Amino acid sequence: MANFSFFIEVLVGGLLSGIMYSLVALGFVLIYKASGVFNFAQGAMVLFAVLSFVGIMELGLPFWAALPVAIGLMVLVGMATERFVLRPLVSQSEDTLLMATIGLTFVIEGAAQLAWGVDVRNLDLGIRDEPIIWVMDKTGMLISQLDIMAGIVATIMVVSLALLFSRTKVGRGLRAVADDHTAALSIGIPLKHIWMLVWATAGVVALVAGMLWGARSGVQFALVWVALKALPVLIIGGFTSVPGVIVAGLLVGASEKLVEVYFGPMFGGGVEVWFPYVMAVLFLLIRPEGLFGEKIIRRV
Amino acid sequence: MFYREAGQFRTSYAQDSQIFPLRQDRLGMTIILLIAVLIPFGANAYWLSAILIPWLILSLVALGQNILMGYAGQLSLGSAGFMAVGAFACYNFILRVPDIPFVVAVVLSGICAAMVGIVFGLPSLRIRGLYLAVATLASQFFIVWSLDKFGWFKNYDPAGVITAQKIIILGHEFVSPREKYWVVLAIVVVLALLAKNMARGSVGRGWMAVRDMDVAAEVMGLSLLRTKLQAFAISSFYCGVGGALYAFAYLQTVEPSAFTIDLSFRILFMVIIGGLGTIMGSFMGAGFILLMPIFLNILFHSIFGKSVDASVISAVEQVVFGVMIIMFLIFEPLGLARLWQLTKERLRLWPFKH
Amino acid sequence: MPISKVLCRKLSGIAAAGALLTAATVSTPAMAQQPEQYFPVASMRVGPYNAMGTGIFGGVIDYLNYVNIKHGGVNGVKLVYEECETEYNAARSVECYQRLLHRGDQKMLLWDPYGTPLAYAVIGRVAADNVVLAQAGYGRTDAADGRVWPWVFGATANYWSQIAMKLNFIQQKEGGIDKMKGKTIVHLHIDTAYGREPLPAMRQIAKDWGINLIEIPIAPPGLEQQSQWLQIRQAKADWVTFWGAGAGMSGTALTTAARVGFPRNKIIFVTFGGAEEDMIAGGAQAKDTNVVAMVLPGKQWPLIADIEKVLYSGGAGKGNMQNPNRVGTIYYNRGVIAAVNYVEALRNAQRIHNKVGKPVNGAEFRDGYEALDYTNEARRKELGINGMLPPYKLSCRNHEGAGTFHMMQWDGTKFQITTKDWIGPNDPKMIRALIEESAEKYAKENNITLRDCPN
């Protein structure tokens, strides 16, 4: 019985971690879906967003005033990216665009350190990241308010993004642009605005992810690496599916924790560093376009 | 005027199929090789051991990555993992096989890496594009993890950072940077010429057919299984050899954490900046990605000295490097090799443009 | 620090750079130059270890400048430095090592890269290059044996002494070694060579004392530690010895410990990742965490106070720290002490080799480093560091030095020292024997003849 409740504990812990992965992966999906770019700089954007947010608060603004300023800043970053990186590269190959976002990573990382220095900061969201006592007493499960918060935020974001893509005119424009830039341009979809909007939204998503991760790990440089955790989530979920990201995040989170806890000790631990990727490969062998990805039909 | 093919006739089949059909190219190549061989007499230890040796080695690895990515069109992010295989295989060959010549050990390590590469290349038969890239990350993480976890690979060294053995060929010990440079240069030149030959022969044509449209290639009777795995094997062989050299001729230590995902990414940058599907580009790209941060670091420190906060300088270096990459892609998306090609074409007409 | 201030600093810096450039082109080089001694600074100012790199190397640079300004150098020899960015990357640090090896006609005397992987990357080169590898509290442990590693110094203590000290501390808290039997201690470590470095000594002591030792690795960068801490909870661990690197991993460890309800006062951090930055990353959950200190933090030490006065106060603007509030933090003070070692070694070298007032070479500097001696209280007071580091001296055989530490506890805003005196391993002889055994094994495998050491 004790073993079973431990199993549940690990499972729940994994699912909750998975939501945190999904939040980061969401930024990738957004940009990939709308512009066909695999945005390598997403991790750097997470760092930049939350570092700016904390930095703005240090300048003396209260939490609720700093938030819109930080969002505004991320919108500016998104617009600048569109103007100076993507627009000159319209209709280049996927590799070139990927490389451009890698260049962008260096710029953003450098800029973040230039603007806000190298001090490590702590972000207090006012939400306690400690187990809620009555949940622990009732069920023996460790769930903190921050976990619940992360879950709520993730749900809100997924629902609103899904609605944005499927129900609005802008969303349809987004999907058209993703299918074919030039075709979309030719039927009068304003590419500039669409891209700008998407990058700005991705910046906001990065800010949200950064705030939750920053509250847990401190606001410091290593946050750029949360992107690595998002990659297997992306493949399993499919690069273009918003709900897929959530399902895949839960799957990755839960399975990697279970494997680490139950099989890790056999090999001296650290299994979770590669397990999600291997699992992703296995998934791909069955469904090469990811769990929820769009099936690509190729003709000769 | 000088770079012109007019008047050079190929009168035999052998002449038609040589690596450098143009006299100027042959001459240029000879000069470059001559300079490369003689450079140690002019360069100091810093240039040899900290710039030229890693540059040559990483060019070789970039070449391997380019075979896979540029010629065969298989996006992969596991090159540092295959380098690690090469490095550890080389360590174990020298450790466990008495009196094995260094070059033999290096070639065998390349073969080990190739075998591992085939295993991790298997998903490519079903997955393509970005999905494959992320899938190959599995190999990167898994290889580094297992080299770290299974003590046999490290000969149960408690520290986990092993001092690389000495480079011994035919009883001679290669100690000085100059000697090591020559060893590296010899291996790199042989493998680069080999790659050039493969790329323009039937093997390379097969790769390119798969890259351009794999379904079409299959319809035309090409075995996808064979071609893709062949590309993975050969690419990993190059990475493995590069990894062995990186550990033995450059770092002088063998440890898993030298072959992180960061290095894999850097190698990817080299190939894209240098130019996909070119041999020359691998060398140029490796030069750019490896040397540019060093150059910026030296440049900014010598311009600003100690009057500007070094933290600011380091951050500015990063920004400038990133901006350079982006500018590059905007102005020449086909890479450094394309610039070289354009120069050649200009030279062909120069000085009479019309 | 507000961005406006940062900008101001930058602008004045750039302006100064411009002025300097003009000055350099206009004026002719000064005649009759003051003799100089050159030190390399292999810093990491960008990347995940930027907080550590800026603190430590800021301290190093500040002390070198301080000696120049306050005392006119070492017996008239001016201290100069050259900086190179390693990004905490072994390959780049090798490039830096080669680049900084020569400066003009001077060769560098020592290499202090501040990272275990970075120290390992050059440990095979330093003897041939006549360069001292100063791995102050990090790096290869068995290099504390001066017979096998004449060019490597680990003062003031190494990782094996440190883990033994932690266990000694736990033992004292628990009320004696006999109470340790059956206690569960988890060594939670980063999954690299550095994280496993203390294990040989730790396993030995665990076996001797009957401790149930569990080793749990965290894959870097360690921003997710849920499964590790659940395992710790499941094992009902009594203590956790945390061996991480980078503020992200440290902060995550503390917040995750709080999530599974593990008391922070039962966690002991390693010196390397145990600074204010690591605690700040953990936020409110970091309170009560124990951290081992090799050099004590604070501005109460006369030397640190004086450096602040000379380089920073009244907007002197001569300091290297971008954020002057970080003067007196753990990393900063460790950097200062590292530089005190350089300077004292240089002073010794000048004295031993009759080169007072002249630059020394690598071999002479090595002798000077080996002659480091902080046992004289008057000298410690003169330096303004009495109490900041343990009294110790190095010898031909002993390249470790003190092997003792203090324990600190984070009170939410700063560290409080919780031990009365410097404490070391319960049985230092046993640790020393392990070190010499390991070093001798290495020497045998690599055909190194042991140096003959009188003591």
From TrEMBL, chain A:
Keyword Transmembrane helix: yes
Bilayer topology: Multi-pass membrane protein
TM region positions: 6-30, 37-57, 63-85, 97-116, 148-165, 194-213, 233-254, 266-286
GO MF annotation, one: transmembrane transporter activity
Primary location class: membrane
GO biological process: amino acid transport
Pfam families membership: BPD_transp_2
Alphabetical UniProt keywords: Amino-acid transport, Cell membrane, Membrane, Transmembrane, Transmembrane helix, Transport
Compartments, record wording: Cell membrane
Entry GO CC: plasma membrane
UniProt similarity note: Belongs to the binding-protein-dependent transport system permease family. LivHM subfamily.
Protein name (record): Branched-chain amino acid ABC transporter permease
Organism in which the protein naturally occurs: Afipia massiliensis
Automatic annotation (TrEMBL), chain B:
Domain of life from the UniProt record: Bacteria
UniProt keyword Ribosomal protein, yes or no: no
Compartments where found: Cell membrane
Membrane-spanning segments: 27-46, 75-94, 100-122, 129-147, 181-199, 229-251, 257-276, 319-340
GO molecular function terms noted in the UniProt entry: branched-chain amino acid transmembrane transporter activity
Record-linked InterPro entries: ABC_transp_permease (IPR001851), LivM-like (IPR043428)
Key word Transferase present: no
Pfam families on file: BPD_transp_2
GO cellular component terms given for this protein: plasma membrane
Bilayer topology term: Multi-pass membrane protein
Protein keywords: Cell membrane, Membrane, Transmembrane, Transmembrane helix
Main localization category: membrane
CDD domains, sorted: TM_PBP1_LivM_like
Protein name (Swiss-Prot/TrEMBL): Branched-chain amino acid ABC transporter permease
UniProtKB/TrEMBL annotation, chain C:
Coiled coil: none
SUPFAM superfamilies: Periplasmic binding protein-like I
Record domain Leucine-binding protein: where: 45-412
UniProt entry keywords in alphabetical sequence: Signal
Tree of life domain: Bacteria
Signal sequence region: 1-32
Presence of keyword Metal-binding: no
Pfam family, one: Peripla_BP_6
Family as reported in the entry's similarity comment: Belongs to the leucine-binding protein family.
Listed PANTHER family: BLR6548 PROTEIN
Protein name: ABC transporter permease
Organism expressing this protein natively: Afipia massiliensis
Species classification: Bacteria, Pseudomonadati, Pseudomonadota, Alphaproteobacteria, Hyphomicrobiales
